[in-house]
Amino acid sequence: MKKHNFTKLLSTFLALILVLSLATPFSALANTSADNNNGSEAVETAVKTKAFKDKLSNESTMQQKAAIAEQLNLLGGDAKLHEQLQNVTGNQLVPVIIHLSEPSVGLETGKRKLAGKSLSATEAQAVKQKARSQQIRAKKEMMIKGIQFSEGFSYDTVLNGMSGTVKANDIEKLLTIDGITLVEPDTEVHAFEANKSKSLTAQKNLKKPAPSDNKLKDKAKDSIVDAKMDTSIGFLGIDALWAEGYEGQGIKVAVLDTGIDADHPDFQGIYKGGKNFVPHTGTDYARPRADNDASETSPKDRPANKPEFNANGSSFYTSHGTHVAGTIAAIGNNEYGIKGIAPKVDLYAYRVLGAYGSGSTSGIIKAIDTAVIEGMHVINLSLGGGANSETDGASFAINNAMLAGTISVIATGNSGPNRGTMGTPATSRLGIAVANTTNPELSAVKAEVTNGGFNLTNNVKFFYTPYGIDLKAELAGELDIIAIPGVGKESDYNQLDVTGKVVHVSRGEIAFTEKIQIATEKGAKAIIIYNSKDHADGNDNPMSNVGGGSVFDVQIPSFNMSYNDGKAIKDGLANEVGKIVFDAANLIYTTGDEVNDSSSRGPSTPNFDIKPDVAAPGTNIMSTIPMYKADFPEATYEHAYTRKTGTSMATPHIAGIAALVKQANPSWNAFDVKVALSNTAKVLDTGKYDVFAQGAGRIQAYQAAHPEILAYAIDTANNDGATVENKKGTVTFGPQSLKDNVSVTKQIVVQNKNGNGGAYNATVEVTKGFADASVTIDKPTFTLSGEETLNVTLTASQNTNAKPGDEILGYIHITGGSTTASLPFAADFGGAAAAEVKDMTISETDLSFNGDGVKDEAMLRFTITGDVGTNFIEIWNIMDPEGGAYGDGYIGYLHASSALGAGSYQLPIKGQYSPWDGTGATTIPDGLYTIDFTAETVSGNPPVIGDYVGPLVVKSEAGTVTGAIEGTTATGAIDDAYIGYQQELVDYGMGYNINTKLKAKYEVIEGEAVIATDTITLEQDGTFTFDLPELDKKNNSVKVKYEDAAGNKAEAIIYNAGDQVDNEVTYKVNHETLALKVGNSEQLTVTETTTKPDGTTEEKDVTAEATFTSSNEAIATATNGNVTAIAAGTADITVTYKDFTATVAVEVTEEPVTGEETVTYSVNKTNLILGEGQQEQLYVTETTVKADGTVIEKDVTGHLRYNVVNNTYATVQKGLVTAKLAGKTQVRIQIEGEPSIYVYLEVTKAPQNSITYTVSQTHLNVGVGQSEQVYVTETTVTPEGDVSTRDVTGFGQYKVIDNTVATVKKGLVTGLKDGKTQLRINVYNSSNQTADNLKETIYVYLNVEKLPQNIVTYDLNTTDMTMEVGEQKQLKVTETTVTPAGTTTERDATVDTKFSVVNNTLATVQRGLVTAHAPGKTQVRVVMPNGDVTLVYLEVTGTPEEPEQPVEPEQPDTITFAVNKNDIALNVGESDQLTVTQTTTKADGTSTEQDVTATSTFTSNDEAVATVTNGTITAVGPGQTAITVTNGDFTATISVDVVAIEEPEVEEPQRNVYTLAEDNVGSKSENIYIDLSSFDGEANIEISAAVLGKMVDAKNEITIQKDGAVFMLHKNILKDIHTDITISVAKNDASTIAGAVSDMYTITFWNGIGEAKQQLTALNKKIEIKMSVYSNNKVKIMNVLTNEVVSKNANPKNGTVEFKSDNAGSFVAIEI
């Protein structure tokens, strides 16, 4: 078996995938100077008194350590590297690819061709049968030998072998199976699209990152581009081939990628089907997939256990393959001119990459095998992921596919611009590897800006432009330009009219795209964004690394400009509107033909082979993307196109052109096509791009299809152990040692292809030379007639000074007639470079292996440039440099191995190491160390290499703190190991400022609150002295605490609070003055506050014991603190309690006059009596009486803030009052901009009856002369839940406020004249109507109109329900309309009614369907369509259902109908649409809706007023009519009022919602900043569960700013929440709160989004809050929702105060 050195394995899946190692030089971590001491004084680093690590281990020591390690069996295990499969042990299943010795069909074809023979179909079948038989024999032998092998794929055409999984312990046994020649890991591969996050790979601990494309985003933006696919068409000469009829007809092209969206309009008629090679097994996918389903991975394929985006930022669902396929073959079925290279090919898709764009090598080999079997002419592989090797299974498969006649085109990767960054399978010697270049791209336009005497003319670079726009027309003429202040935020446009103007905006604060979007919304014509001074970095260039060409996502052109030009224009405009003229007729384009920096470079190893073979445009390519119509039938494809960049995008250009070349030359084989593509390519700037960057050059399609000659470089290739012919367009001289003179000859066979022949010249162009090395041609001139062979000879003299990098590169040009064929050549003289260790870094230099989750691990990264043998990663003890088992200071090792290949690695350090004394693995002890890599080199140049990172501190616990207070000065010391380490490192010139390692601070504590704190600057020996603020030594303690750099913490009290003092008792009334209107009332509350010596306070509501006296009861009365306004005037209320007296001034005014709009708030109960443990829901109604008397009511219960004045007795949550302890207090309801409402609450020991009063109608419409009876009902609910009702209409006292509009007698209301007023009902509990018996005052809004009105009432089918657990019952609301003529109609109004259960743990309700869950008693609150509220009393009996109990019989579906409107007002000529909806509610509560408008019947009572057709009502003339709607048994009547004048539009209220999107989520530990300043009133931040999960994973912190307050939510605050959440923030006036020196700032957390959200009661995580205050004096911070003091002694600074709270709430600062 052949041995594959240095194969890197993923611990479980053995996957080789792409990773870019972080390359921070060690010096950036270790060096100490004044610059990295955070502003502190530099410590002693200038004098270096000791030599630090001045020599590496010698070879003898290395060999001794290797012997010891081998004896101790320490070269395996979780903390070691396993470079080869035979080192893997255990019971885990390992994915492998097994090679067998019988040749495959492709290999046998190549061997025959090399011998000048061919392979017949019969012979090919025989070869295939031999391969299959050998596979069967091998599997039988495995079974006999007990090898657990589970087969995945088998191959016989491009490889003889099998893939599958084998138990790790059986891998070595495979080598004993007859016929097996090679076992390699089944590696993971990825799509080569740029701008993707890096993938992670590796072995168990020490990981080898492979080339990555993660920096391409920045590199690609170096050029602002505007490439379309049709730019490639003309640029590459495609249209000339189309004109000749070559569009790919009859050519079969397979795309091996992520799949395809076959529903895309641009694949109609050409997509012929596909296959799937990605297994959908286990829980990796949500659903299975057929073998012939090559569709893209869809969002619906994602199971619940898989994230939408993985750790690398790749989405589960894919689009890459559709984009690639579009570049090859899109048929142009769109309005944008987007079309593929070969739009008439037969297109096939082989899905080899699945979720997240990754797949296995085994699947790719099987797809290549299938492509050859199915007769594909061309295959496209825009993927890769293996090492830079020509000798792996995927490379062999490509070789054999080419030999079998399948043209194989492969992307090199996106890890440039360095040498050797490409990977397999592009390294296949026979395949066609492709580099990424640029098209000509729109770059800039000349612009002249003028304003008065100001003039500036310069080129401005394009940023983004709308796709498909005519820029010349859009930018023509003289345009207005205006400079926007600030940075172009929405608020910066205030008072500015930018409609039709060019806006000029500075970079900064908000994203470029957001600036463009805001400018668009404001009506701007275009936008220029100029660089900010902070980003200019000392140069004055435009922002050339940003922008994205023409895209669908923008509507106006945008430009970017340098800082100096931008600043000059801003100053020149001087806040005025200037003029700008674009030279739109002369747009400036780039020339294209630049090799993208990201494009991976060759050579391939080990033969120094020239790769890539050829280059093509792959930067900013516009092509097709999927919309997944099969899963989302409503999807449309109008904009199903986007730009992508990468070698993935270049490769399909070559594949498409190869199809056209094959069509034009049907007799050519795969190598003819390859050589034609290479020979005819345009050689790009050789001063910038060598042969390993561009290969033969950039493709020229027409020339490739019609060459005069083809020049074949004749070579051979090792193909899985066999030598095969390799005809190509590059000359490989390979590595050449100059220990002796060198002379190497290669042959080029020139063939005449057009039949003309003639004279040709052969010349050599050397682009890089060395010494006397030269390349010569034996026939510099020749006459071609048919075929000519040229001998090309490399010569170089012996040269012992040759070093790595010495080479000769260039091109051989064969010129004659009108053609030139170019072949690049290369030879390497330097041999292996001197091996070295580079970029050795560690992510943390301070570690604490104590399991607390802080600084518990670090990642070590390094790169070695050459292969090494014995190697160690060891720990060196700085404090004992001559200790350890070998006396060299090394205490043990983290990794030991006998071989390691050149590459970049990473090793997680989690606290375990192996001591050199052989005692076994254990935890790294606390100490000061370096981590060293030391290795013997394979080349011997030099013999030993090494490097280190450090100093590294391992420290598992903090030290101690001591100290004392004298006056206001504190002194003390911190005793910590960091101090000793610092003193040791000073001797090495590596000292640090101790304050960078120990962060100390003090806290002045009053009770539990920190009232003052500041940092402490330590001396280098750990001592400290600091001054304290003025101390109350009786109440204040002083604490010193610190945290070290390893995350360990310590603290100590250095001063305790002093003597005891007496309690201090104060009293306060909640109002100093009252302003009331006649009939209104307000509650006074007296609070007793007791302050204890420890600073804690207790508050008690003593209102019930206080005395209240009115100076004039004719103006206002006061009963138990409830002040009622009787008549206009003034009065004083005197409040007395014990020795406390206070006076409250009351001013009473008349009720508001008609004509003014008023807003009032009322609560359903002003007095509550509850027993301990009882609950009762308060409901608050906002009533708006408009100027015309129209009354609008709104339930605002859920939008207000509540608190209990003394929460010892009760608590309140969203109006739900829960009684806790017997006593008297009040519930305070806070309404922004309005006085608080107080509900008097008495809690008794025994549970109390709950008594409520309701009126039959709260809104009454009657006509003049009509009468309507109002009924009042008293409902009593006992503590046991029993409900009784009685009619108390007769106990009511009734009054119409304006008795000229209507009269009332015992609840019977009679309309007198048209108008609007109110009916006031005082409800008493008996006929004795005294003040003591008054229980409730209810208002009914009364509307009297001249014409008799329809009387609309609503009835509920029941108000009392008893249900068993699990039972469902339907509540049904019927709307009854009685017309003035006496006609009665009914309709089901259930769907227009709102339902909610007071205690939704007992039952839930949806569209009136009640489902019982648990035994108990509660209420269903029903809000009728007219706003009336009815309570249904619900008792649930039985026991909760067990999961295994049988399901109750399914209830029949409930079907209801609803019309979207009850009445309609129209102007003449207007129309409106009625919609009839049928709602089917199933027994499980789910419901479906169906629009049945088309099957309903509509009739107008008066077609002179309005007509109706299919539900569309058209107003014909002024007047009133009715529309009758019927559908089966359902009938509804809609009132229509038509007027001849246009009514003003009512502006919809703005919904203040900020939705946090996925792209707002930052990278690891990044802060998310949300500015809500532009929102009026309360603002809501909505975060989906998916986005929240990403934030928690990324450990993002959130900062929210609004209206003078900043809320800081740390990274762990939301980690226990797994649902959608809403965060509400608001500012409200706090002037009614005594002593308040700030507004009231509120933050609330909710489960859910929208109206369904429910408040989170507790987070128990600290929130940092910073808010504005109006005083510089000390304040206390009160949470008015809980009546708690969250900060007792806070110091405002610069108008703000900072504090922390354990929970959400409403916070106000009160001066102390």
UniProtKB/TrEMBL annotation:
Transmembrane segments: none annotated. Residues 597-607 have a biased composition (Polar residues). InterPro entries: Big_2 (IPR003343), Invasin/intimin_cell_adhesion (IPR008964), PA_dom_sf (IPR046450), PA_domain (IPR003137), Peptidase_S8/S53_dom (IPR000209), Peptidase_S8/S53_dom_sf (IPR036852), Peptidase_S8_Asp-AS (IPR023827), Peptidase_S8_His-AS (IPR022398). CDD domains: Peptidases_S8_subtilisin_Vpr-like. Residues 286-305 have a biased composition (Basic and acidic residues). The active site is at 257 (charge relay system), 320 (charge relay system), 648 (charge relay system). It holds the Pfam family Big_2. Residues 281-312, 594-613 are annotated as: Disordered. Residues 1061-1147, 1350-1434, 1453-1537 form the BIG2 domain. Residues 1-30 form the signal peptide. Keywords: Cell wall, Hydrolase, Protease, Secreted, Serine protease, Signal. PANTHER family: PEPTIDASE S8, SERINE PROTEASE APRX. Belongs to the peptidase S8 family. This is S8 family serine peptidase. It comes from Sporosarcina quadrami.
